[in-house]
Amino acid sequence: MIANLVYQESMDGTSDSNTRFNAKEIPGAPIDPLYGLVAAYEADKSDKKVDLGVGAYRDENAKPWILPVVQKATEIYNNAKKDHEYLPIAGLPEFNSAAQRLVLGADSVAISEKRVCSFQTISGTGAVYLGGLLVSQFTAQPRPYVYISSPSWPIHDQIFATVGLPVRHYPYFRSDTKTFDLEGMMQSLSSAPKGSIVVLHACAHNPTGVDPTKDEWKKIAAIMKTNDLFPFFDCAYQGFASGYLSEDNFAVRYFVDQGFQLVIAQSFAKNLGLYGQRVGGFHFVAEPGANSQSTTTNVASQLSLLQRSEISSPPIFGAQIASIVLNDPKLFTEWETDLLTMSGRIKKMRKCLKQELDRLQTPGTWDHIVNQIGMFSFTGLNCAQVMVLRERWHVYMAETGRISVAGLNEHNVAYFASAVDDVVRTVQ
């Protein structure tokens, strides 16, 4: 890809106009839908407008919430008067080790056997990108397919395409029942070429809010083991599915226990509310065996080269705040309480929305609103209905019908339910 932008010269020293970089030939790219939605919401002057687009936690007054434990950690950091020197290429060591324990479990055999290497990244997005680069760099042509759930976080497709990996999709969500499509996923994975990479949402699937059960995860692991498929976990919402950190890493722990070689992209944007600090981690886990430690060492060395060429070293402030929380038992317990506050309010809003829709006798069934989990809900509203919600009711949500339930509160949930009732009855 980079080679395509290099200015070429012919043997006699003259340029080849057919291969030279020419900015005039670059077409304009489409506006990112989410950021376009944010801009439209901010431009709306209505005092009734409702933002259900951005996947960020909001309090009862629709305001960003700084976690109390993060406030305490920030005070500790400021009082320590730390300097602003560069971090190592891999990032803050005490953050990396704590992030490992969080996603794999403190008692993980992979950690004790030194089969894990970890790098601090630019949030979960940077972790997915770093993992994609690693796979792209060290697999032979033709590149393996990357299987991504349909639907998924839109940037998954974009990242893997950017690093030169071909993308395919597996069924995940049944629109008729608004439930997880285990059968469709299993059929797709059973026919995937050996060595394919499968992107798995560790918990609180974005955008559907639908997760496999533990038994379903075991079936997914079994078919992936049989077909020699490579798990690529994206763990962006640990703590938002069940409300408990130790519950939400079940899938990752189970796959590791089954002896998979795998990678994990981890974000602390949501569960610590460190959105703009871009705190994330990337973890490689080698499969058990006599050469597992040397494999891990070699992978870490190559990740260092990739990280060095991309960002040199990651930012320090957010990692320090996360590290303080992760490594202090008292603060960690307070963090768990904060997570219950956030996940609990979201669950409450799900119930309130369902109750309002039932009260209005809105056509259709709305059990999926409370059956889904995490920050998001796939409402089942179509694009035409979403656009009327925006134009008539000043409600801003993704065109797919996904809402961020965290954007609902006791002040706007009835209003939103009335808006939904209206478009369901009047817009097909």
From TrEMBL:
Give me the reactions it catalyses. Answer: L-aspartate + 2-oxoglutarate = oxaloacetate + L-glutamate
Q: Which UniProt keywords apply?
A: Aminotransferase, Pyridoxal phosphate, Transferase
Give every Aminotransferase class I/classII large domain span: 48-419
* Known EC number: 2.6.1.1
Cofactors: pyridoxal 5'-phosphate
Its GO CC terms?
cytosol
Which molecular function GO terms apply here?
L-aspartate:2-oxoglutarate aminotransferase activity; pyridoxal phosphate binding
**Top EC class for this record:** transferase
Q: In which domain of life is the source organism classified?
A: Eukaryota
Instruction: Cite the NCBIfam families for this sequence.
Output: PRK09257.1
What family does this chain come from, according to its entry? Belongs to the class-I pyridoxal-phosphate-dependent aminotransferase family.
Further facts: In eukaryotes there are cytoplasmic, mitochondrial and chloroplastic isozymes.
The name this protein goes by in its record: Aspartate aminotransferase
Native source organism of the sequence: Penicillium salamii
